[in-house]
């Protein structure tokens, strides 16, 4: 004889918007039944379904916002929402941390995202890209206030990671647009602020000192030069702004003409 306590227990899980990217195709856009073993934290059930916690902003259980530690009971209905831009969040309990002001956003990128790292620096954002870093180190930097951008779901699911995003596209220019949208960065772009190689903020350089170091035409046309205090490289506005403009133009063209979704 089987008692009631032996019957399998389930919860219903519904993912909204781009969180469906993490579910197998046939399961997207509809409620999932997930087997419940014991009374796990809602975060564990969400991640077991494939959705990394940094992608989640709000979790509701039976219609009520809850924290990630909320224990689930049989037949609970779980709704999981991605980060959203709200004018007024009100007193809603967010499962994830509140969005950062765009001008306070700093990043750490995994070893496969070198081009995106350069583009973010070109845009002025403080971006670490520790090549060959172990996952522990990347997760530690992400727990230290940096936003982790990665294409490694296992890394993104680490509990040390507070803020982060899975980079969907494998094309760097699209990755940049994706990142701008997700963290609302477009208004905080500061070209000509940061060294592309070292990530250091540039310092004003004496114009005369640039005369021998840059092409004559550049020297004639540019009134202002800046120098990286770490590697000594000279930058001028044209070098950053022109690259930025080409990059954004390519990205827009790709978005208009592309068949992606
Ligand atoms: Zn430098």
- Distinct ligand kinds: zinc ion
Count all strands and give the number: 12
Structural class by secondary-structure content: alpha/beta
Level-1 CATH class name of the largest domain = Alpha Beta
Q: Could you spell the SSE succession in H and E letters?
A: EEHEEEEHEHEHEHEHHEEH
Low-confidence stretches: none
| Through-space gap between termini | 52 Å
Count the domains: 3
The general outline is elongated
Blueprint of the fold:
Blueprint lengths: L8 E7 L16 E5 L5 H7 L9 E4 L2 E3 L10 E5 L25 E3 L4 H9 L4 E2 L6 H9 L3 E4 L2 H4 L7 E3 L5 H12 L19 E3 L1 H4 L5 H6 L3 E3 L6 E3 H21 L4
Parallel strand pairs: 1-5, 6-7, 6-8, 8-9
Antiparallel strand pairs: 1-2, 3-4, 3-5, 10-11, 11-12
Helix pairs in contact: 2-5, 5-8
The protein binds zinc ion (ZN).
Quick overview:
The chain has 261 residues and is of the alpha/beta class.
Give an overview of the whole structure.
This protein has 261 residues and is an alpha/beta fold. It has 3 domains: 4-81, Ubiquitin-like (UB roll), CATH 3.10.20.30; 102-190, Rossmann fold; 191-256, no CATH class. Helices cover 28% and strands 17% of the residues. The strands form 3 sheets. The protein has a 5-stranded mixed β-sheet with strand order 2-1-5-3-4, with helices on one face. A hairpin with a 2-residue loop joins β3 and β4. It is elongated. The model has no long low-confidence stretch (mean pLDDT 89). It binds zinc ion (ZN). Zinc ion binds at residues 195, 197-198, 200, 228, 230-231, 233.
